[in-house]
Amino acid sequence: MGLTKVCGTNYPSSICFIVVNEFCERFSYYGMKAVLTLYFLTYLHWDKDLSTAVYHAFSSLCYFTPILGAVIADSWLGKFKTIVYLSVVYVIGHVVKSVGAIPTVGTNNVHISLSMLGLVLIAFGTGGIKPCVAAFGGDQFDEEQGSQRQKFFSIFYMSINAGSLLSTVITPILRGDVQCFGGDCYALAFGVPAALMVVALVVFIAGSGLYKRNPPQGNILLEVCNCIGFAIKNRWKRSKYDSSRKHWLDWAEEKYSVRLIQEVKMVLRVLVLYIPLPMFWALFDQQGSRWTLQATRMNMAFVRHFLPRDQMLNALLILVFVPVFELIVYPLAGFCRINVTPLRKMATGMVFAALAFGAAALVEVNVVRSVVDPAPAGECLLQVLNLAHGDVRLKLPGSDAFQQPIRYLQDPPAYETLPASGEELKIQVAFNGKLSECNFTSEQQEAYSLLLYSDSTGIHCTQVTDHITKNEDGNPLLRFLNTYPDPVNLTVGAVTFQVTSGFSVSPNQTVDRGSYPDVSCCFPAERCSLLDLELLDFGASYTVVLVEESGSVVAHKMEDVKANDVHIAWQIPQYVLLTVGEVMFSVTGLEFSYSQAPPNMKSVLQAGWLLTVAFGNVIVLIVAEGAELEQWKEFLLFAGLLLLVFIIFSVMAYFYTYVDLDQLDEKHRHDSGREEDEEDEEEANDVRLNRKSTRL
User: Fold this and answer.
1) Which Gene Ontology cellular component annotation is one that this UniProt entry carries (predicted)?
2) Residue 6 pairs with which residues in a beta bridge?
3) Is 413 left (phi over 0), alpha (psi -120 to 50) or beta?
4) CA 320 to CA 513: how far, in whole Å?
């Protein structure tokens, strides 16, 4: 087999094709997923809940289908043919998905049908080849190349994250910066990943002459299940009369070979170790959900355009940390005579992930200080904005809210909580020594502003519904209140506001974060002015009141929801801790799953490893939906659960005995030799009996 020098170590030449194939495949997968949610929202016009549900259903399917690919590879086709055939399915899925993103192809129902069909094919393709590619790469090494194989899995994992990093940069650019069919070019954003998957398939086939291939050995999974079932059945029937068997699987010796029984024992020991592992993935996968939502409520000043988004930051850190651990940390630990076994690495990775969520909880406690909590059930929130030229006092029946006088154009005080009965409430307003009444009607868990203004007939009030939830993309929200008798048009960056006359309020709109010293404000008859809105900061919600002072238009900016005051750089420690945990847990787990699997069940065990990711997502849904905790408490709950799992896993790992496949082969040869000796002895006895019977 040809060899090539990689990092001073002899590697099989074939792994170059496998690593490039994995890079292109991961670029294809993550590039498509990077714009998938936006595609649902803006192209298929689904709501947020449906888009999120389909996104997570697709992600889960991608991690449940590996078991199917593993069974096909180990039982019938072998890893090479399985990868090739399912890659073709993968490519077809991408092509169908890209065609569904072309506006001229049918109606919206056709787009939905093609998109769903494409996603299902992609899920079967990517899920089916996931366990096979890693195991096939491990197959290229001889048994004496254990250290090279361990480094291969690190390089393999780096290729995954390199593909992820580049794709999450490039495909959003293809979608937004390239225009086609009169809008965002989703067809191109999905088409480029399709082309990369074609490249992945071509590269993999190009190396076919160099690959070391282990042939499939029949329906091994069915044979394993039958072996387990026979052992249980046999033990149940005969355990009363025979207690000499050391292990319950030994009861299958009457029908199955000693080697198969030993291999089943190996697989079951590893699968039992996998039982606690989904909890790690339950924490890890929240980078793309809970941590992303946390980031939208943080201040991204100075770094927004060059600090990587969540997926990119993790992938970038992986590319840095994997060589650091392989070339520095692990060798240094060995130099210090620290026995760093795979299971110890994985347990330590759990601790780092728990610490990451502890750090995330600390950040969250500070982040929520700028968030307006919604009113509890049966109540509402109210703030008062005084536009009358003088102080006002309010008296609400059955409430002590708004005890202090409210001055003209004073920034509204914090929201007050009031009962929300749905019925009309009479609010007394004292202004210039006169009492007036305002009608106020509220719905539970809503937020309102009460606008007070005066004219020659007295004081008047207008009720406006507020938006107190911070913007999901982190940008500020802005609205204008027009006190002029004429309508007005305003342009803030690329956003236009149209406000009708007479104390009217425009709807909230999202604007880009930044300073706006020259905002165009135009009235009828082309009477325009320039307003200085100063800085509109991340996460804030503003009401700008347009009033006349000294014959000119003046903008009074009021902050309804505070700007994000915790810098996003405070998320870096939690990402660093979680990535360290990932390097120690995930990279090691890939190699461990391969090294501890019998040759004919390596893909199956890789699929079992990937299933822990799927079940981790299920845990997130259960805890998030069932616990209903504040976010920082939920982070601490996950950290505590993972520490508990760490203790359980450490105890299980302490009693785990690593399997040496060479020793298994030697034991098999020894057992086979013993069985042959017993058969020879039986044949000799038969010969002697035959001779005796002849003499008789």
Assistant:
1) membrane
2) 9
3) beta
4) 32
CB distance 451 to 465 below 8 Å: no
User: Which own/partner contact pairs does 523-532 have at CB distance under 8 Å and 24+ positions apart?
Assistant: 523/484, 523/486, 523/487, 523/488, 524/486, 524/487, 529/553, 531/490, 531/555
Contact 453, 388 (CB under 8 A): yes
Single out the residue of 285, 286, 324 nearest to residue 583, CA to CA.
324
9-12 vs 541-549, strand pairing mode: unpaired
Q: Is the pLDDT of residue 102 over 60?
A: yes
CA–CA distance from 582 to each of 53, 161, 498 (Å)? 26, 12, 50
Residues present in the chain in total: 696
Cα separation, 154 vs 377, in Å, equals: 51
pTM (2 d.p.)? 0.77
pLDDT in tens, 594-627: 888 887 777 778 778 888 888 887 787 777 666 6
- Distance, in Å, from the CA atom of 595 to the CA atom of 574, rounded to the nearest integer, reads 31
For range 161-188, the mean pLDDT:
82
Identify the bridge partners of residue 4 per DSSP, sorted by sequence position: 11
Nearest one of 583, 613, 603 to 138, comparing CA atoms: 603
**Residue 508 three-state SS:** coil
Taking only the tens place, the pLDDT of each residue in 471-486 is 877 889 999 999 888 8
Could you tell me which of 399, 430, 392 has the C-alpha nearest to residue 416?
399
For residues 560 and 542, the answer to whether their CB atoms sit within 8 Å is: yes
